Amino acid sequence: MSILGVSTLSDAVVDQLAYGAKNYFEMEELVKKSGEVIAYYLNAEAAIITNSASAAIALAVAGLITKKDKMLVDKLHDKNYKTNGEIIVMKGHNINYGAPVEVMIRLGGAEVKEVGYSNMCSADQVQAAITNETVGFLYVKSHHCVQKNMPSIDQVQEVCHRNGIPLLIDAAAEEDIHSYASLGDLVIFSGSKAIEGPTSGILAGKKQYIDYSFPHLKGIGRAMKVGKESIFGLLTALENYESTKQSVDFQTEKLKPLYKLSEIKGISVTCINDEAGRDICRGRIMVNEKEANRHAVEVVNELKNGEVAIYTRDYHATEGHFDIDPRSVTKDDILLITRRIEEIVGEAHEVKS
Ligand SMILES: *Cc1c(COP(=O)(O)O)cnc(C)c1O
């Protein structure tokens, strides 16, 4: 969704954005207080609002590099001072979510130490990778990551705690905002993805570690500053989060018109649960190239290039299927998408006959 601007805001959120924009605040106080509110919603001890999840990763890492030494905050990235350390990340988690996660780690001042292979990693390998230079371990919870043959969060948490290494969890796009703070020492969320707030990010976690990151708001974090309007918008989005969350039943109901497409030769539609285990069901459109006279990749591209650009979840289009995510579309949108797929495949049939 990031390529389409991530999410849309509710009227309540926009109203509070305007409130924040139109008034003055004692900013230090606002940053501190808003952090406390965020922490409350996430079941964390403390939190900081940033302008993106990427910024939250960098800020978390910067804090782990400088720890209590506030003087080093001004010397981050300065080779004349001891401002280095390594963050361990599993190779299958070293992803590009639109930008490489490793760049954000380096932005925070740490080296990136990959562990495991592109298709597997074990808790023992994680243990073996830890050295005196290790300042943290980053677990990326995302559909972009390799899912199979990877240790669970519980397993890496056990290794981290045994070695006194803080566990960071990048849960940027996760729907479950309540559980991760109890699993990780620091957790990262996007404010605009599942939470559907304005462009923003959240760094939350144990107070000790948030306290390490806090001084960086007057260092590297200045380049990641979040505006007062975004703070008010995000708080409102969080306040309304549970009430606006769509149940799987609601999503399934919304997708119903899509099933009509199964009547077309070469097309079949099923409902697929989210691969990362979130409460999302998506409509999967399977395109049998021979029967439909179109490859799924062609259908996906034509959808993008129509009068209304329709973006699908097309990571597997080369394998012959793509998904429709119901969360950010209305029932009318689903009807439009259905008609457009009918048109595209209908034309293909005409060409053939
Ligand atoms: C989207 C995403 C990010 C980055 O979020 P921004 O707010 O756009 O910086 C980081 N990590 C993961 C896993 C993501 O999905």
What secondary-structure arrangement, pairings included, does this model have?
Layout: H1 11-22, H2 27-42, E1 46-50, H3 53-66, H4 70-73, E2 86-90, H5 101-107, E3 111-115, H6 123-129, E4 134-140, H7 153-163, E5 167-170, H8 180-183, E6 186-190, E7 201-205, H9 207-213, H10 228-239, H11 241-244, H12 248-255, E8 267-273, E9 281-287, H13 289-292, H14 296-305, E10 321-324, H15 331-352
Parallel strand pairs: 2-3, 2-4, 4-5, 5-6
Antiparallel strand pairs: 1-7, 6-7, 8-9, 9-10
The structure holds pyridoxal-5'-phosphate.
The site of pyridoxal-5'-phosphate has 12 residues, from helix 3.
Descriptive notes:
The chain has 353 residues and is α/β, with parallel strands linked by helices. It is built from 15 helices and ten strands. It has helices at residues 11-22, 27-42, 53-66, 70-73, 101-107, 123-129, 153-163, 180-183, 207-213, 228-239, 241-244, 248-255, 289-292, 296-305, 331-352; strands at residues 46-50, 86-90, 111-115, 134-140, 167-170, 186-190, 201-205, 267-273, 281-287, 321-324. The protein has a seven-stranded mixed β-sheet, with helices on both faces. The protein has a three-stranded antiparallel β-sheet with strand order 8-9-10. The protein starts with 10 loop residues before the first helix and ends with a helix. The relative contact order is 0.14. The mean pLDDT is 94. Pyridoxal-5'-phosphate is lined by residues 2, 52-54, 97, 140, 142, 170, 172-173, 190, 201. The site of pyridoxal-5'-phosphate has 12 residues, from helix 3.
